[in-house]
């Protein structure tokens, strides 16, 4: 018998994030042509934008604030940045990209702390964009 595996990536989009769902179809083809092939289908879902937002707000907001407060007060101007996270099925961050107008020290700090974050486990990898609004009050 040989196994044929095909995967199709599905993207669930919203204005701030997307989670990747994976639909896998596995067809087991018997060596003997008289047997009927068996098809097994599996569907996996990545994390939602809301799950990632909630985790960042409850678990990591203090780290983001720490990074922002390292900047001298006179250089803290209101800014918006995008944090793109690649998250593995076990919740580990496997990739992080920060874009926006940020002081270098803030960007380096957020990249450093964000690479160590963990999120809830999921059945598929996730690609999430999270907006950061940084300002002094």
Structural class: alpha+beta
Unreliable stretches: 1-29, 38-43
Q: In CATH, what is the class of the largest domain?
A: Alpha Beta
Largest sheet: 3 strands, antiparallel
Looking at CATH, which topology of the largest domain would you report?
TolA/TonB C-terminal domain
Question: Over all CA atoms, what is the radius of gyration?
Answer: 20 Å
Tell me the overall shape: elongated
CATH architecture of the largest domain: 2-Layer Sandwich
Mean pLDDT: 76
N-end to C-end Cα span: 66 Å
Helix content: 10-25%
Order of helices and strands: EEEHEEHE
Number of domains: 2
Write out the strand line-up for the largest beta sheet, numbering strands in chain order: 1-2-3
The total count of strands amounts to: 6
Notable features of this structure?
single chain, 137 residues, alpha+beta, TolA/TonB C-terminal domain, three-stranded antiparallel β-sheet, 23% helix, disordered N terminus
């Amino acid at each position: 018998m040989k196994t044929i595996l095909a995967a199709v990536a599905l993207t669930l989009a919203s204005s701030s994030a997307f989670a990747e769902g994976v639909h896998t179809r596995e067809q087991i083809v018997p060596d003997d042509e008289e047997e009927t092939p068996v098809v097994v289908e599996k569907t996996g879902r990545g994390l939602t934008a809301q799950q990632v937002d909630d985790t960042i707000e409850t678990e990591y907001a203090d780290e983001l604030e720490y990074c922002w407060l390292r900047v001298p007060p006179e250089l803290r101007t209101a800014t918006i940045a995008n944090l793109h996270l690649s998250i593995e099925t076990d919740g580990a961050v496997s990739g992080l990209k920060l874009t926006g107008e940020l002081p270098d020290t803030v960007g380096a700090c957020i990249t450093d702390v964000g690479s160590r974050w963990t999120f809830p486990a999921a059945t598929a990898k996730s690609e999430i964009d999270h907006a950061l609004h940084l300002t002094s009050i």
